[in-house]
């Protein structure tokens, strides 16, 4: 946050920056928890403000250096769920059973209570919704998920772990080099068109009413449709914006059109849209057993940042 200083400020400067976590915004002004303590900035002194991506805890390029827990939290923006309930640092999400991501407890950070009690609370909350208790558990690529404290607790109660998923990241400027397919155009809109629905996956179309409600929760999204010169929609996907990042979701090419480079065109156009807006990093999530998709993403510059699993307790 850029703050205007008084004309007689001893520093002689006109402005100063206040960085930290915004914890309140009311008539008094903006309250920020900074390294120096709590700072209240009156609105009359606020010149500008912007969100800052999470601090890195790894060395390397920005899309590689973000901490696993921070990226896990950031990815919630792409599919927030219809119901969200915090349990300490954990976040329980529900979307009437559509997708694991939107119907699991994001188990990162401290739940604010002993682990066994937190698992009980998640189980009870999902029980009230008529759903099994799902926990999303993340770690470095190749980590032993059964040794994770949450997974170990679930397994000890007779639960199971399943569905290894890779989170891949890349620099948008590098991905943006992907060439478009001749005689096609990629339509980018702020809301899904009928053409987008035509090329979306069968599961997405089958649950259209629910998906429309889920997509309405995405704060800043774009919907991409690859069309032939005739106007026929052959592939679709969407991107969700977060501070400093885009997430790629729902990438799908019609079965009869696969192998023509339309998936590559979708990802490339997504990166160009982000890069044009100054967004430098991209993420996506892909099942660990989907070798063709992983090969495509790697050829575009994506690398595996981390992985996650689900732990289920009925």
Automatic annotation (TrEMBL):
Keywords: Acyltransferase, Transferase. GO terms for molecular function: acyltransferase activity, transferring groups other than amino-acyl groups. InterPro entries: Acyl_CoA_acyltransferase, Bact_Acetyltransf, GNAT_dom, Rv0428c-like_C. Residues 176-314 form the N-acetyltransferase domain. PROSITE patterns: GNAT. It holds the Pfam family Rv0428c_C. This is Acetyltransferase (GNAT) family protein.
């Amino acid at each position: 946050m850029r703050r205007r200083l008084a004309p007689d400020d001893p520093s002689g400067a006109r402005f100063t920056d206040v960085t930290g976590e915004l914890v309140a915004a009311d008539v008094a002004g903006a309250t920020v928890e900074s390294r120096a303590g709590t700072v209240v900035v009156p609105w009359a002194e606020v010149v500008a403000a912007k969100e800052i991506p999470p601090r890195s805890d790894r060395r390397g390029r920005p899309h590689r250096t973000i901490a696993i827990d921070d990226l896990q939290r950031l990815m919630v923006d792409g599919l927030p769920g219809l119901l969200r309930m915090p349990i300490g640092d954990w976040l329980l999400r529900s979307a009437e059973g559509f997708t694991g991501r939107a119907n699991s407890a994001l188990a990162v950070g401290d739940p604010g209570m002993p682990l066994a009690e937190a698992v009980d609370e998640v189980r009870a909350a999902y029980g009230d919704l008529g759903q099994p208790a799902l926990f999303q558990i993340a770690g470095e690529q190749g980590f032993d998920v059964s040794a994770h404290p949450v997974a170990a607790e679930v397994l000890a109660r007779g639960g199971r772990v399943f569905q290894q998923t890779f989170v891949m990241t890349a620099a948008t400027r590098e991905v943006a080099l992907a060439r478009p397919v001749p005689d096609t155009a990629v339509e980018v809109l702020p809301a899904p068109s009928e053409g987008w629905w035509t090329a979306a996956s069968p599961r997405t179309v089958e649950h259209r009413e629910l998906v429309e409600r889920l997509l309405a929760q995405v704060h800043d999204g774009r919907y991409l449709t690859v069309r032939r010169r005739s106007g026929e929609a052959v592939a679709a996907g969407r991107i969700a914006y977060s501070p400093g990042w885009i997430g790629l979701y729902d990438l799908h090419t019609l079965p009869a059109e696969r192998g023509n480079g339309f998936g590559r065109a979708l990802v490339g156009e997504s990166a160009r849209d982000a890069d044009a807006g100054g967004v430098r990093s991209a993420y996506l999530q892909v099942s660990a057993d989907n070798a063709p998709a992983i090969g495509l993403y790697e050829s575009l510059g994506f690398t595996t940042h981390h992985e996650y699993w689900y732990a289920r307790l009925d």
